[in-house]
Design goal:
By secondary structure, the protein is an alpha+beta fold. The chain contains 5 helices and 10 strands; from the N terminus they run E-H-E-E-E-E-H-E-H-H-E-E-E-H-E. The strands form 2 sheets. Strands 1, 2, 3, 4, 5, 6, 9 and 10 form an 8-stranded antiparallel β-sheet that branches. The protein has a two-stranded antiparallel ribbon with strand order 7-8.
Length: 167
């Protein structure tokens, strides 16, 4: 099976289900080194005249180093593979070859790493990033609940360059 580029107008996905419940992989790197992480926070929309995604990465995540080093990264969506996504979200690539451990296979679309096992892949380019600021919470209970260790996510706004679907 191969990936076929599709027009964003033909995208038929429920982001609440696909991101929030089924999860996605945020993946970055180059031909020599790749890392990935599972995410269930993110969004899809339009900002500054661009079709964009938002992704959120805590500072201690190893994948953040890869996303920060590259202009582009991928968001990969799967049918099933919940066990594998669970492992990829709970084990650090600093400590083990977690991609090999779950028997996923890296492939490249537009020189950006993703996975042969994915059903849908967004290739995105970071256009803005900032760190969530505690003083900006209007509801301080959110800060207390989600950031007891004060490890605030970096918010990435990334322009959607292309979308690929498994054929």
């Amino acid at each position: 099976m191969t990936f076929q580029k599709i027009d964003i107008k033909d995208l038929n996905m429920n982001a609440f289900q696909t991101i929030g419940k089924d999860w996605m992989l945020i993946t970055a790197g180059d031909q020599s080194d790749v890392n990935t992480m599972t995410a269930s926070w993110g969004g899809i929309g339009v900002l500054w005249g661009n079709d964009v995604v938002t992704a959120y990465i805590r500072p201690q995540r190893y994948t953040k180093e890869f996303v920060d080093k590259q202009n582009c990264f991928s968001l990969s969506f799967f049918e099933g593979h919940k066990r594998e996504l669970g492992v990829l979200g709970s084990v650090s690539g600093r400590d083990t070859d977690k991609i090999k451990d779950v028997d996923f296979h890296i492939t490249y679309l537009e020189d950006v790493p993703t996975f042969e096992e994915a059903q849908l892949v967004f290739i995105v380019e970071t256009i803005y990033k900032d760190t969530i600021k505690p003083e900006c919470f209007l509801d301080q209970a959110l800060d207390t609940r989600w950031y007891p260790d004060k490890d605030y996510h970096t918010v990435y706004v990334a322009k959607i360059k292309s979308i690929y679907k498994k054929q």
